[in-house]
């Protein structure tokens, strides 16, 4: 954009140099102007859906080598749009990869198919899982009785070399998923799971959790852990003795105040919105 100012400067309402400086920040949102730049640079056509009742916005280049479909789900957010054919192909390829992993690498064999079918498509199993009840008919279908463990092995070796297929069948019979439902979806050739998006979403949730908690400074009212003789007690700071490094703490379990050194106190993090709430006894 900087090298082709004449082509894009009129599209920006703000000062062009300030705008360029702002969008160099990787956390800054961009939009239609930047898509036009990408379209010209990489020969990509963008088709952007803003509403179901309106025709899509089309950003075209002279000789496109690829078409990218997006949906504007917010003022600045764009999500990928896939055709049903593309999704079917992605789901099938994904299931092949996970099938090789769970059937061959983890040596779970055809029991993986039984687990996926039960977890995703068997309503009776879903009900059984919710109530955590044994289903005798299902146990017979899984043929648990036909699988035998080698009791001649030492006890520790039995734990290590326990038949994983037996574990799948036993878990299913008890209404317990043998592996996460996310994995079951990736094993189903008719379902596409966006693994990359799931990982990004989990990372974002963890970051939000860490951002929402603060460690208050040592002052009357804050909650803390007190380490006394290798025991951990929960208490609240009542007073800080100015002449020494000692702190007066009310310990809930002991139902009394104790004077301890500040070295044996660990402040408990609290949600940011509770950072100013102090408790006294």
UniProtKB/TrEMBL annotation:
PROSITE patterns: OTU (PS50802). Coiled coil: none annotated. The keyword Aminoacyl-tRNA synthetase does not apply. The keyword RNA-binding does not apply. Keywords: Transferase. One of its GO terms (molecular function) is transferase activity. Residues 1-84 form the OTU domain. This is UDP-N-acetylglucosamine transferase subunit ALG13-like protein. It comes from Stegodyphus mimosarum (African social velvet spider).
């Amino acid at each position: 954009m900087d090298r082709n100012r004449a082509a894009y400067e009129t599209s920006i309402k703000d000062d062009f140099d300030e705008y360029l400086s702002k969008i160099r920040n990787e956390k800054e949102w961009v939009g239609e102007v930047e898509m036009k730049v990408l379209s010209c640079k990489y020969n990509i056509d963008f088709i952007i859906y803003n509403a179901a009742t309106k025709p899509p916005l089309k950003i075209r280049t002279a000789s496109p080598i690829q078409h990218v479909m997006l949906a504007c789900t917010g003022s600045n957010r764009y999500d990928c749009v896939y055709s049903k054919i593309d999704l079917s192909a992605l789901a099938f390829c994904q299931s092949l990869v996970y099938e090789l992993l769970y059937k061959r690498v983890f040596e779970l064999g055809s029991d993986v198919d039984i687990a996926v079918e039960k977890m995703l498509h068997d309503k009776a199993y879903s009900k059984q899982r919710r109530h955590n009840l044994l289903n005798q008919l299902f146990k017979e279908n899984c043929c648990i009785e036909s699988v035998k463990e080698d009791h001649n092995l030492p006890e520790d070796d039995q734990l290590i070399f326990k038949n994983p297929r037996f574990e799948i069948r036993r878990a299913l019979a008890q209404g317990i998923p043998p592996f996460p439902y996310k994995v079951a979806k990736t094993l189903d050739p008719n379902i596409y799971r966006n693994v990359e998006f799931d990982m990004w979403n989990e990372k974002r949730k963890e970051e939000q959790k860490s951002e929402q908690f603060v460690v208050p400074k040592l002052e009357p009212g804050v909650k803390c852990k007190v380490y006394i003789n290798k025991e951990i007690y929960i208490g609240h700071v009542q007073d800080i003795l100015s002449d020494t490094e000692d702190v007066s703490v009310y310990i809930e379990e002991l139902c009394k105040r104790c004077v301890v050194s500040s070295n044996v106190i660990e402040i408990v993090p609290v949600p940011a919105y509770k950072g100013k709430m102090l408790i006294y006894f």
